[in-house]
Amino acid sequence: MTHEKQVSNALKKMADALEGKNTAHKIKVALTTIGSELLAEELVQGALMACSKNPLLDVVIIGPKTDAPFEQYNTDCEKEAHSYLEKLLKEKKVQGAVTLHYNFPLGTSTVGKVNAIGSGKEMYIATTTGTSAAQRVEAMILNAILGISAAKSGGIKSPTVGVLNVEGARQVEKALNTLKDNGLEFSMGESVRKDGGSVLRGNDILAGSCDVVVCDTLTGNILMKLFTASNTGGQKETVGWGYGPGIGRNMENIISIISRASGAPVVSGALQYTYEMVAGDLPATAKKQFKQGDKAGLKEILADLAKPSQKTEEVTAPPKKTVTEEITGIDILQLDDGVQVLWKEGIYAESGMGCAGPVIMVNPDDLDKAKQALGANKIL
């Protein structure tokens, strides 16, 4: 079934429920209400908001007793709450969960969702908590797979993907282009800046230029805070869908994360986001993306990254020239190596930082030759 068909079916079932028909099938999502910096009642209020918007969502509360009309498993102990949660998921009594704390294994990270401030467009932030891999560039490549999985489960057939301009971004961009060319189904996004490209800057995050924003987890976590809590000075998250479901190669259950500062609107959004991921069969979608990625060379790309780096031979700089031409598209992790490569070719070059990120500066007469040398050494 296509994702468009899944979304269409979900909307039809919701309409059936509103009309009082019996064909609609509810999805049960557990919500733990212990561990928040806010009162448990705030989280329960979020559940009430979510259910009022979506009659197909059935929330199960795990936490202190409430008068709200939900199925409940009452406890004041966070450890016991998670025991209830694990049991309900294992016994298939709930199809998904929203909780404040969960120890995901290495290789599993969460994909959050926000509204772009400048356009209102929905963006998936990949990723926001967890660790996809110990090595930064490897983790970001995997984060892209996770973001694509979430977006496709949410109904986007060919999500546009951009890479936040952080360390390793250019290497990640090259890897994603290789995967795309080899058959992984997604589209490379385009920056709103004049020079374009798939490496995103602040303008792109505000404008929502791509469906999926790939970044390292710590940066993704900060982005979530800025998007969800800027209106309250960081004291309380009041907008958005939370930090999202934990996604990994072998995921089985859909467990989404909110923070201790998530208010009722975010709890409501997180429950609805989880509902969408259940309806879109996120575990099956993720498995499909990893399988497709492996066929496109994912494992080989990651294996190459794991190889010990060979330090570029130190060479003496050639005679100095006036450098006024910028070569962009160089990852900051390869900037010094790039300068050394050019020096070895007898081309004088200097490293620098332009408005679009790291640059290598050369004389105009050397520009074409320098680009060829950097390309031949897989730096550009």
TrEMBL record:
Gene Ontology biological process terms, A to Z: fatty acid biosynthetic process
Q: Report if keyword Oxidoreductase is assigned.
A: yes
- Record keywords: Oxidoreductase
Q: Which GO terms describe its molecular function?
A: acyltransferase activity, transferring groups other than amino-acyl groups; oxidoreductase activity
User: Would you say which domain of life the source belongs to?
Assistant: Bacteria
- Report the enzyme's class at the first EC level: oxidoreductase
Q: Name one Pfam family in it.
A: FA_synthesis
Q: Which NCBIfam families match?
A: reduct_C_alpha
Q: What is this protein called?
A: Glycine/sarcosine/betaine reductase complex component C subunit alpha
Question: Origin organism of this chain?
Answer: Proteinivorax hydrogeniformans
Gene name, Swiss-Prot/TrEMBL: grdD
